[in-house]
Specification:
By secondary structure, the protein is mainly α. Helix content is about 80%, strand content about 0%. The longest helix has 20 residues, at about 1-20. GO terms for molecular function: transferase activity.
């Protein structure tokens, strides 16, 4: 059981590392768009009780807000 737990932890850590390395070349506006979409998806899911449409709608709204708040002047 202990080795199974360690294997799962190793897989999660590798996935996290790969995900974060993909953001290294992003501009500030791209990062804010992605963060806004993620936060919006979580918020939409929580507010609608896990509804798929609520999650997608929250991601869309959050992405737009994140994109627009960091527009270059």
């Amino acid at each position: 059981m202990n080795t199974l737990h360690q294997s799962k932890l190793a897989i999660v850590m590798m996935a996290l590392l790969l995900t974060l390395s993909g953001c290294s070349g992003m501009s500030e506006q791209d990062r804010n768009t992605a963060l806004g979409a993620g936060a919006g998806a979580i918020g939409g899911s929580v507010l609608t009780g896990g509804s798929t449409m609520g999650t997608i709608g929250g991601a869309a709204v959050g992405g737009v807000i994140g994109h627009e708040t960091s527009k270059p002047e």
